[in-house]
Amino acid sequence: MTDVTRSGHHEIWLGPSAAGQVPRGHVVAIPLGWGIEPRIEWNRDAVVLRFEPGGEIRVPMAMVLDHR
Q1: Domains in the chain: boundaries
Q2: How does pLDDT run across 11-23, given as a tens digit for each residue?
């Protein structure tokens, strides 16, 4: 997971990162006011990002792994 800041908002990139390979995965924008340090839960079917003050983002594991 990587936090990317662009144009005043934050994004989290979820996916594998191997040297010399094109990174693949899913980029998730974080809504303003949600904070930038989510609690991360890795489940079998999805990655769940939980933010203060109660926001939640779920990303299906198929989007995170991206086995192209």
Answers
A1: 2-65
A2: 888 777 767 676 6
